[in-house]
Amino acid sequence: MMNQTSLSDIEYSNRKKKTRREIFLETMDAIIPWGRLCALIEPHYYEGKVGRPPLGIEIMLRMYLLQIWFSLSDELTEDGILDSRAMRDFMGINFLERQAPDSTTLMKFRHLLEKHELQKKIQAEILLLLEESGLIMHGGTIVDATIIKAPSSTKNSTGERDPEMKSTKKGNTYYFGMKAHMGVDAGSGAVTSTSYTSANEHDITQAHNNYRDDDTVRYGDAAFIGVEKRPEIKEMDEGNQGNG
Length: 244
Description:
Layout: H1 7-13, H2 20-31, H3 34-41, H4 57-69, H5 74-83, H6 85-91, H7 103-115, H8 119-132, E1 140-149, E2 166-170, E3 173-185, E4 191-198, H9 207-210, E5 217-219, H10 231-243
Parallel strand pairs: 1-5
Antiparallel strand pairs: 1-3, 2-3, 3-4
Helix pairs in contact: 4-5, 4-7, 5-6, 5-7
């Protein structure tokens, strides 16, 4: 089916100003070597010999990156694509031709990347591109964590709740879901690393996964008080001294 231009497409293209989200996604779309990243995943991807044929690697990778960049749960990533024209354009989705992958498909893809430890490889590739493009700096990292809420009925392929989804209390409110831990470049604001845990995991336990080896300054809120005493951080510091 050929791409069809609708009245809404014409109206959208005549806007006077693009949103920051739209500019960011267009930039990332242009600089990311999609073929190279897909080649990292391909040896581990589903062959589709049984059941429904798998969706293309690139469209799932794009959906996964949207989840990382905007700190969304699986369900909210699906909703965001349905709701945001900028996200749909980044995904290359035209509802006249195809629907967006659902949240369960994204969850399975994310678990596939985790199983084969592909997340860090993908992030390292993107980080290198940001550095080469002058979009990122070095010297300091800000670490933070955010709770990604999920419906309490979230299920995985076995019919059980996703094991990443747990309950936690923040203030006087209980939340059910997972937690995204992020490292952000202090100079540019670009996300340099991410890790995911159950919502009840303490922020400080993931600090070593999100600080960078060459950081001269480390930032964090009250949840990270005493982080320098953790064995993982001490090991990082000792390694840096040995390389000095």
